[in-house]
Amino acid sequence: MGVLRPEINALSGEARDKASPDIAQSKEKRLAQAADPSLRYARREHGLMLALASPAVLVILLLVVLPVGWLAWQSIYHDGFTLENYHRIFSEDIYWRSFALTFELSLLVTLLTLLLGYPLAYAAASASKGWSIAILSLVILPFWTSVLVRAYAWLALLQRTGVINQFLQFIGLTDEPLALVHNSFGTVVATVHILLPFMVLPLYATMQKIPGDLMQAGASLGGSPAHTFWRVFVPLSLPGVIAGATLVFVLCLGFYITPELLGGGRTVMISMLVSRNVELYDQWGAASAVGVVLLASVFAIFLIVSRFVPLDRVLGQK
Description:
Layout: H1 4-35, H2 37-76, H3 84-91, H4 93-126, H5 129-140, H6 147-158, H7 163-170, H8 184-207, H9 212-220, H10 225-236, H11 238-253, H12 257-262, H13 270-279, H14 284-305, H15 311-314
């Protein structure tokens, strides 16, 4: 041991000599970082941004994350872990019919709002500033009233003794009142009216960015107005079409008041199915499972759309 001790001391001394430059460099780096005012300001700015964002993060956790987590937990837990609620959704016909009707009506409403909203958005984008403001004001005007008031207004217009039936009988088109409410027709009409602004506004935002010189260039190359419109303008407006269609379709999936009032209990959409499971049958687990499946469907739709259009454009951030 006496012979080995000098060798051990020598090796430890060499290790200290090799480590001392690294320690010195790390100390110098820390001192340089502490002395650099830009790094201090950056750390301070990050701390301030975190402090400013913490209330919003807390609100999101309390109002979004926790409710969705509670919803998912209720769908799989009832006196123990169970998947009975999800098995019921994929095995019983009433759930299949409700999901099929909801997606069918949502697709129909999306197509109708596109057919009505595209000309409106094009007129607002191509008109002068004054006319553009007037058109957009008429489009946004229904936002001044609640969805419930607009649904009751359509119920009054479309009922058997309403203005529309009386007008049709007055001009001789019908001999007796038509069944315009308490069915899918009334639901679609009112839903199209309510969701039309959500189609027009993304379309207008996209069309406004299309340079007018492109249409003139197409005309100068011998293209007719219709040919130039279909070959130049329509392809450039497709991001707005996808964004508006996504918003309308997703919003229509969760509609409750309009189909409840104008459907008359015959148009059972997913939201009404959730309500009946809770109010009539006290089946919170089944209602939670339906909500989770609907939420997963919405996420899947956004995931598919994000492959074609950025989500920030769909959500109106650009």
